[in-house]
Amino acid sequence: MTQITNRKPRILTGDTPTGRLHLGHWVGSIENRLAMQDQYECFFIIANAHAFTTRAENPEQIRESVLEIATDYLAAGIDPEKSTIFVQSEVPAIAELTFFFSMLVPYNRLMRNPTLKDEIRDKGLGDGYSFGFLLYPVGQIADILAFRPQLVPVGEDQLAHLELTREVARRFDQLYCGVDPQTPDADYVAAGGLFPVIEPKLGRVRRLVGTGGPGPHGQLLKMSKSLNNAIYLGDDADSIQKKVMGMYTDPNRKKATDPGTVENNPLWIFHETFNPDRQWVTETEDLYRRGLIGDVPCKKKLVEVLVTLIEPIRQRRVALQNDPGHVLKVLQDGTRRAREVADETLRLAKKCLRQDYL
Q1: List of domains in the chain
Q2: What is the pTM of this model?
């Protein structure tokens, strides 16, 4: 069996194009991607085919979102000289691997995926979801394994998908490559397997809350475009100020001089996540708990913190939007590279499957 011999270990991660990237993406995965560009061979997929699972009637909107996310990647600091950014649907090997992998996932196992259940509930799909919606977790497995990475930087909500990927990698290697089921996960390739049993790498904040209030069961909702509670990497200072000043805080605090609760308070979750002045955060949280400071000055401080973080990204984004040809060329060059790697994986997989006829 051909072994993975990259000079650098490989990572694969990406996003489904549902709109622009926000701060939840930043702390959930983008920060990790930027930090890993020099030490890893990085592949970043824009999974446009998956967007069709819930928006098949809006192909033009999906295309626009692909270009928006590519622009966000570049503005955030992903370097196409170091990392490969590519479009999922332009890598045919992924679709072919999806078909083979679908034979290794029992239907009842698929339906136990908590992320799938959450999306059906959160998007109000009821029983009207398409077969493609059920297929997309298997497609995610192919997205990942087509590149045979060692690590997958993700947010917490993707861990269930990654566990399914690990199961399929083990199953394929055992069934078609003769790997002993007792083999430790880290040794599957060394034992003759084609696919590594990948490891997730979580961001420093597993699930960033949004700026809005709690959900129907009282839980704080994660940041999401569909919930209209997101601060985007391309937001200008006025937009950030408006969103932060309207942010949900402590519902039991009737006036600024009342003692306030810091725990599960989005205002303080954001300060703890983004404010680099740790002394200010600690001292001001104490004042807040004692009713010695109100929400407004704390929100104004948060506005300063977020504008400092986002404004350089926004400025780079504006420049990229004025040069759409550059963004498209990055996608074209990256997709050609991604095809080469995925085609090699498909060729090796067909050899393992005894389906290499040509």
Answers
A1: 10-202+323-352 (3.40.50.620), 211-318 (1.10.240.10)
A2: 0.88
